[in-house]
From TrEMBL:
<feature type="signal peptide">
    <location>
        <begin position="1"/>
        <end position="28"/>
    </location>
</feature>
<keyword id="KW-0732">Signal</keyword>
<protein>
    <recommendedName>
        <fullName>Lipoprotein</fullName>
    </recommendedName>
</protein>
Amino acid sequence: MTTAPRLTVLILASLAALSACRSNPATDAGPSSGASANGMARPTAMPATDAFFRNLSTLCGHAYAGRVIVDRPTPAGLSPFEGKALVMHVRECTPDTVRIPLMVGDDRSRTWIVTRTATGLRLKHDHRRQDGTEDPLTMYGGDTVKAGSAKRQVFPADEQTKALFVSEQRNVSVTNVWAMEVEPGERFIYELSRPGRMFRVEFDLSEPVPAPPPPWGWRQLENGTP
C-alpha cells in the first residue's frame, strides 16, 4: 500500500472514532444527579436538626454540672438559681425523644423534652410538683422554624405556650425564645431570651458527674399518667 492511501485510511478511522465519542450518551449526559464524576454516589447531607438531635443523643445516660453565665437583668428578688448546684441529666433517649431533667439544688421539678417533629424539633418544659403532679405552668415551649445547625437550635414560643402564659398572667413571656447548644465533649448551653431579658446556663460536658435522683413525677410518667 502506498503512503497516500494509508494516510487516507488513518484519517477516516480518526473521524469515525471522533464521531462515536460525540454520540456516546454517557459522555453527553455527564454524571447523574446524586453521583460524582466517577459514577460513585454522593453522600446525602444530614439535616441540621437531625445532626443536632444526634449530638444531643450522644450525651444519653450522663449527668453534667453547670453554672449560670448570663442573667440579665439581675432578678429583683432572689433568683431560684442563686447559690444552687445545677445538674442536667440526659436520662432517657429514644429515636424520637430526649428527656433531660434539670436539678436546681434539691428542686427536681424541671425536665426539658426535645422531640423530633415532621418539620424539625420541638422543645417542651415539663414542670412538676414534689408529689409528681403537674404544675399549672407546664409543657410550654416551641418548635424550630429555621434549619439551625448541628450545634444550635432555636425554639420560639408556640401558640399553645402563648395562650398558657396569658392564662397564667405571664404575658411578659409570650415573646420567649429558647435555644440549646451542644458541643459534645465541650459544653451544653440552655438559653432563654426575649426583649430586655437574657438567661444562659452552661454545662461542662468534658467531665460527667454522678447521676442525681429521678425528677419529680418520673414514676407517673413511667406509669403513663400525668
